[in-house]
Amino acid sequence: MDYNNNATIDLHIHSTASDGTFSPAEILALAQDLNLAAIAITDHDTVNGSKEALGIGVPPSLKFLTGVEISAAPPPSFPYSGSFHILGYSIKIDDPLLNKTLATLQEARKNRNPEIIGRLNSMSVAVSMDELLNEVGDGQLGRPHIARLMVKKGYVESIKEAFDKYLGKGKPAYVDKYRIDCSSAIEVILGAGGVPVIAHPYLLNPENIEDIEELVITLKAMGLKGIEVYYPEHSPHVISKLADMANRHELLMTGGTDFHGSLKPKIKMGSGKGDFFVPYILYEKLIESI
Length: 290
Description:
Elements: E1 9-13, H1 24-33, E2 38-41, H2 48-56, E3 63-73, E4 85-89, H3 96-122, H4 129-136, H5 143-152, H6 159-167, E5 180-181, H7 182-191, E6 195-198, H8 209-222, E7 226-230, H9 236-248, E8 252-255, H10 281-289
Parallel strand pairs: 1-2, 2-3, 3-5, 6-7, 7-8
Antiparallel strand pairs: 3-4, 4-6
Helix pairs in contact: 5-6
């Protein structure tokens, strides 16, 4: 099928393999229903979502990229407090070093959850690891799942309230997580034949756009290949600035909604908050670079 720039894509989607609420099968079906031209499943620190989608079989009408979103530590000279993540596209999902690295990150996540629950218990919030496992099953457990359990048990009225009162950074039940160096994250993605891209750079909350540019230059020297320019929380002004930055530094542009299903109910796959649009040509340029 031929696509033009009126076709939209979504290269930032989370499934039940990490903290999304839609299974890979449901994501493939929804992408078809929405007439998306191309998608990538980019679960946190796991490629299981991509593996499952490939195992099911991607519909011929839909272009699909394997993906991952790795939790990384920013360079020491850029001590950002926001979410610092490196996206990896078109990765070989059976790459040994990639899987070893992701296993380390997943183990760190598992060790974090009991500590969070212990802090909640000390505040008379009676939730347990057994309850959490019963809720989620074999999925990768994280704070959103704990928040959902807290809603179910009536301790909070919403996931947002759980994060605002207990689980968010700086709140009483927050436990920081292990991250690998950003240089290692980039190196692992490159080693798996993938394309490393900095995720939602403006969420790092720099004082100005020039801070992001210095960061991008530093990351490019490490092997970074692209910037997630299109993102629902990026204003038109920020998108324009990031696009200009990508062009000047000869970096690829990508985009996606960061779809999590009901965990982020206002964000719809492919369209964000309603008027979001990522042009198909970005997928074409990404494929050309591989």
